[in-house]
Specification:
There is one protein chain. This protein is an alpha/beta fold and about 400 residues long. It has helices spanning about 40-50, 55-60, 70-75, 100-110, 150-155, 170-180, 200-210, 220-230, 230-245, 255-260, 265-280, 285-300, 310-320, 325, 330-335, 340-350, 355-365, 375-380, 385-400, and strands at about 5-15, 20-25, 65-70, 85-90, 115, 135-140, 160-165, 180-185. The chain has an eight-stranded mixed beta barrel, surrounded by four helices. Strand 1 and strand 2 form a beta hairpin. The longest helix has 18 residues, at about 385-400. It is elongated, with a radius of gyration of 23 Å.
Length: about 400
Amino acid sequence: MELSYIARQAILDRNNQTIGYELLFRDSPANKFPEIDQDIASSKLVIQNHFQGDIQSISLGKLAFINFTEKCLINKYPLMFDKSSIVIELVGHQSATERLLKIVKYYHEKGYQVALTEYDLDKKWDVLFPYISMIKVDIEVTNAKRLRPVIERLKPFDIKLIAEKVETNFQLQSLAEVGFNYYQGYFYHEPEIIEGQTLAPIKTQMLYLVSETFNKPLDLNHIAEIISHDVNLTVGLLKLVNNVATGTRVEIMSLKQAAAYLGEDKLKQFVTILALSKLTSSKNSEVSKQSLITAKLMSTLAKESAFIEISEFAFITGLLSSIEVILGSPMSEILKTMPLAKPIEDALVNHEGLLGKLLELTTNYITGDGENIQQLTELYGLDANFIHKEFVSASNWCKSLAV
């Protein structure tokens, strides 16, 4: 069976809020553009995301940035998508020909946003400025400081600048000073760890709450007590009970009763998700979303084939997979506050054991990174179409949480 992958990378604004995702076709687990015609790649991406999946799920309700060659634009592939859901990225163009100008004007008049990529600062592109919404600049190729004259030429137009290949948080401030509006890269995956830093009491409490849900039997009195210390957790618990109790009238007399009414499985998920939301700032909300999708996808995959024996650990492992980035503390220090089972610790710290392999497979699939996805799927008897279907489902679930 031919395997296909969708690499997804977030695009964030100056406040670290996600405004969209670039979706890239990959024909192998290697996270690079395949050595095939770009028109074919664009077509496959359109088919995969429009007919085989839900593009709004994969992009979590945000804008989907999709590469389109001139041939794809002439064939009107973008018209298959709602104009409010995508940004058309121009790729493969060497100059602003009359034909390209006509094409860009056509989509502009249709209400689509168009982004000029591979921008080299040359004035030949200025003719497109009245009809484009964004310009993407690869800062590995182009010195950002050379943009200052261009910014003067952009002033009459409402065009946003996107910096590509941003790898560290350190780069953000200087790029903002130059005039960039949005940023794309792996900078939000970078843990800013300050040695000797201690966790704030509220964060320690939230981690402890997560740990409590994995005690057997559950100590409902203790869980209710911790929840009672936070208004948002309390309201969230009662809302969940109300959702579960649709069609029946339930009179909740205490938080312990509310917790008991949900049952162990729903209570565990509720506690871990809300605790994560309390730990997350706007700065790392993108990482938080990825953790939730990882948790949900791991939980589903763990019910299949060889992974079933570690299924009870799958959700919590996925949820905590990026906790080092979220909290800005070393994983070893974080785990001291959480009496987790050894398989979870081994998976989180070293990707060891069966649970570690599941974590590796899941995270690599979501980001399009790693060269061992196909090897792992074959080894553990997982079907690529099944993984893709459950990835879309997990993304939908994450979107429904509105985190």
